[in-house]
Give the backbone structure.
Amino acid sequence: MKTLLTLTLSILALSTASAQSSTADLDRDGIPNIRDADIDNDGILNGSDLNVDGGIAKSGPLKGQYIGDRIANDDAAELDMDADGLLDNAANETDIDGDGLADNSKLELDIDGDGRMDNAANEMDIDGDGLADNAANEMDIDGDGLDDGVRGEVDTDGDGAANGLDGDVDGDGLANNSDADMNGTGVINDYFQTAGADAAYAPDASVASTIAYVSGEVRRILQIPATDNGLRVRVGASQFGSLIYGAWRYLSADNIQVYATWCYPSWDPSQLKVFVDWIYTGPLSGIYEDYTNPANYVVSEENRLSAQYPGGGFTFIGWVPPEPAGFYFSAPNEQATGFAPPYEKLRAALSSYPNFSSSPQYLDFSGSLVSTPGFPGVQPIINLQRTIMQVSRAWYGQLEAQQMR
């Protein structure tokens, strides 16, 4: 009986809260806040009012009185700027400033009603929830109820420009090609800065001589100038059997990265390999200890590395001397992106590469970076990734823009 009573009271409380949110009328003009174009009746329409739910009423039964709060829309203490009973960061609050324009509308240019346009360089809290747009815990930059990383979020910063056509996807004032967290999900684009990655590596200061040696060899092979600071080398936190090992990555100015593992026998650094895979050769037992035992792995002889552009798929580069370096890229499918992949456009953009082939069935593309044997240096790989990135973003951006209409 007590449980039933508690449940009944809970339902009643929820019903009461819902009724309050739909009938609240701050200026008592008979129009609920949720539908009132001027909630505080101060003569300033909500969309232009820097304090939507507070001001001196110019008309109505409360004329001449200051009603509501004295908290500006962009103040961190303002949790419900349009006083409609829905918290500004609630998933079902779709019009934060109460101006009648949905937060995800292309016509809504100032989501939090603070007088700063959403795409302005100095607008660092687009939805006015007190969390900076570039904060790691800001998971819904435009406050539209869609997490920034989900497939259906096609305009992350709510500025009316589809992500694929937006030069600053997360609206943090940094252009995509110089933004370490391009889509505002809190996950850094850098291969070495993903969650938990540092635990796998020794502190750089403790292995400085190893880093210097490996960096020099990687620069020589990849043809990276000494003045280019895009290269980073890490050393594994523990030895992998009798190997000294680690990883390297090269990050271009527009955040395209090329990376692989490296290793050498502890007794002979001159046997350094900078493009390697760890190949499992142990029993296929299904036993965890077998797959984590370093003795069950060998270093492959095949040269192979990976490349990636921000938010994009992986391209694998591999070759066995004396063959030229070749690439393999598989486009994201419709299930992964929500849009049909730009197969024909990618095929046209990549078809000039030597030994090019593609498969519409599997959405994959392959070819050689150059026609001469050996590794051509890092720049042709960056150029390939940049082409894939530009074609893909232009295509998906157009489709995102259509979806937003």
The first helix runs from residue 2 to 23. The chain has two domains: 1-187, 193-404. The CA atoms of residues 101 and 108 lie 6 Å apart.
